[in-house]
Amino acid sequence: MSKVIKIVATLRAKSGFRAEVEKALRACVQGSRAEAGCIAYALHVDIDDPDRFVFIEAWANREAIEQHKTTAHYLKMAGAVKELLAHREVLLLEELED
After folding, report:
1. Least enclosed by CB within 10 Å: which of 12, 21, 27, 36?
2. Mean pLDDT over all residues of the chain?
3. Any idea where the domains of the chain sit in the sequence?
4. Alpha-carbon gap, residue 37 to 19, rounded angstroms
5. 98 vs 95: CA distance, rounded Å
6. At what angle do helices 18-33 and 72-81 cross, to 10 degrees?
7. What span, in angstroms and rounded, lies between the C-alpha atoms of 62 and 70?
8. 32 with 43: CB under 8 angstroms?
9. H/E stretch holding 73
10. For this UniProt entry, which residues form the secretion signal (predicted)?
């Protein structure tokens, strides 16, 4: 059995574009949660920095992540925010066993 892969994706909106970025990111949540390999998918905003958004996700395997990146809702979101982000970092994490 493959291990669950967790993703922490941090995106910072360029100054003045927070609302547009938030709208585009929110639009991706429901579709992503409905994907077969999605275990968890949640969008957060940094309390101390409202221009910083963080996705915390859990996926069944790497194949599910790759499929996610081909969906219409993901591609629409990625295209909408591409020029509106000052920073983007995506971490793929595997939990270490005890």
Report:
1. 36
2. 96
3. 5-94
4. 29
5. 9
6. 170
7. 13
8. no
9. helix 72-81
10. none
